[in-house]
Amino acid sequence: MPHPAVLSEPVLRAIASVARLSGGDATAPVPDDLCRRVTELSQLFTRERKSLASSYLDDELSRLAYLAYFLPVNLAKVQVLLDEMPAPTRQKDVTARPFTVLDLGSGPGTASLGVLDWARRSPSMQSVPLEIVSVDRSFQALEECKNLWNAYAKSERVEGARLTTVKVDLERCHPQADFKGRAAHSYDVIILANVLNELYPAGRDPIHKRAELVRDLLGLLDQNGTLMIIEPALRETSRQLHLVRDRLLEDQLCTVYSPCLHEMPCPALLKETDWCHEERPWTPPPLVAAIDRQVEFIKDALKFAYLLLRKDGESLVRRAPNVYRVVSELRSMKGEKRAWLCNEAGRPEVGRLDRARSATNEAFDEWHRGAIVRIDEIVRKERKGRESTIGRIPAEATVEIIRPI
């Protein structure tokens, strides 16, 4: 299993300072009004999304609730994916070239703070200047972005890092005109974290408009850069992301670094009840754990849908017909275990009978959502002249976990 994500102490101190709350005592009570707002925002983010106003961060209590509870969770998701993308490479003669990041729909600077902290802790980034451009439509959110940045930078005595905030409505922006000249060169990373699904909700074809925006952003991305899209792990928002993915790949302007192991149409879209999302382990910080106890939530894992897009054709692992991504939990059934997989051949359901467990396939028992696995043999028996829809891993098969994620 992958190691749980853990937020750094400097990040937690910066959040606690700006949110005007104590983050040091896991047992300290959190103000009731803030907990109520956390509950209300959670409802808006999940079950009542159509009622979510784009200006919710303009309200002070909503901002504090977001800073205290949702920002740490979403920042951890960004850092998990920063660690997953290819390590930045720098030639010796261009070490002074800054690492540039465009954080779109930044809100109070969730991804911007995440990148700053990640760069400070990454050995390959510590001597590289950092430039981050944070973009949002809310003036108040951008002020909090600067507050978080300054709190972290002052505490850690950060040098060689620069933040620029830009107030722009993404639905009315022109990326080449609005963002191209904000950094010293094309962007190494462009981040859309929990924002793409909120754009163009009333449009005739929101998927087309979102894909069009991402196409324009790819024009600002360095040839060896990464465009990161994170969305809520809900069926509706995840399926919308799958649709955007398919439209982008049709244009052949990019490829998927992860999570997909192919550029074929997304097989999760074939059935309306399917969608694909991640679930990564993490250790909740004290403040999040304290709020969870008071509102009776459980934030014991990072759940999200995502895409890491590249223009250089790189992929997370070397692809092959016998390499799959596990896209479900491992389900225990009577006499067997099953999981759903995905690769270029589609989205098969694969199982292994308990009696077929062997030394060569015992890695099957460690499968989990997001793991990338190799299987050298899958058997599908015929019944009444039709091939079974469930593939079986026989005792003689070899199963490996290539990357646990």
Give a verbal description of the structure.
This protein is α/β, with parallel strands linked by helices and 405 residues long. It is 30% helix and 23% strand. The protein has helices at residues 9-18, 32-46, 60-84, 110-121, 139-156, 175-178, 206-218, 235-250, 286-295; strands spanning 99-104, 130-136, 161-167, 187-193, 221-232, 255-258, 278-281, 301-310, 323-326, 331-333, 336-342, 349-353, 372-375, 382-383, 386-387, 390-392, 399-403. Strand 1, helix 4 and strand 2 form a beta-alpha-beta unit. It is globular.
Going by helix content, strand content and strand pairing, the class is alpha/beta
The helical percent reads: 25-40%
Shape: globular
Largest sheet: 8 strands, mixed
Overall pLDDT, averaged?
Answer: 92
Provide the low-confidence segments as ranges.
Answer: none
Percent of sequence in beta strands: 15-25%
Question: Would you count the extended β strands for me?
Answer: 17
Distance between the termini: 8 Å
Please tell me how large the radius of gyration is. 22 Å
Tally of helical runs: 9
N to C succession of SSEs: HHHEHEHEHEHEHEEHEEEEEEEEEE
